[in-house]
Amino acid sequence: MTIFASLSLLLFTPSGQGGPGMGAFVIQIGLFIAIFYFLLIRPQRRQQQKHKELLASLQRGDQVVTSSGIVGEVLHIKDDQVTVKSGESRFVMLRSGISSITNRTPAETKPA
């Protein structure tokens, strides 16, 4: 029986006819919330935390890839702004616009 069929039985069965009670409905909703949390919310929070740590470890001279796909080298970091050199151009962007650091190995990104 699918979730929708069991849900319709719970919602549309009169209370006096011995269908599943309100407890079964609460358990199903609880399971749905738990599955939603473990499959969507928790992994996204971990990914956001890793990206936040990556941006905190940004240093001058790092090769970076921006969220728009521009590859460049970090020249200067000031609070929330980063100056990046790509080819002959220099541009200032927000630190949050950097998606990855390409010239580091995983051992270098971990603080000692």
**Main pleated sheet:** 5 strands, antiparallel
What is the terminal-to-terminal distance?
A: 54 Å
Strand order of the largest sheet: 4-3-2-1-5
Overall pLDDT confidence: 83
Helix content, binned percent: 40-55%
Strand content bin: 25-35%
Radius of gyration: 25 Å
Ranges where pLDDT stays below 50 over 5 or more residues in a row are: none
Total number of beta strands: 5
What is the total number of structural domains? 2
Overall, the morphology is rod-shaped
Structure summary:
With 112 residues, the chain is an alpha+beta fold. The protein has helices spanning 3-12, 22-56, 106-109; strands spanning 63-66, 71-78, 81-86, 89-94, 98-101. It has two domains: 3-53, no CATH class; 60-109, SH3 type barrels (Roll).
Structure commentary:
The protein is rod-shaped, with a radius of gyration of 25 Å. A hairpin with a 2-residue loop joins strand 3 (81-86) and strand 4 (89-94). It is of the alpha+beta class. Helix content is 44%, strand content 25%. The longest helix has 35 residues, at 22-56. It is built from three helices and five strands; from the N terminus they run ααβββββα. The protein folds into two domains: 3-53, no CATH class; 60-109, Roll (SH3 type barrels). A five-stranded antiparallel β-sheet has the order 4-3-2-1-5, with helices on one face. It has helices at residues 3-12, 22-56, 106-109; strands at residues 63-66, 71-78, 81-86, 89-94, 98-101. The mean pLDDT is 83.
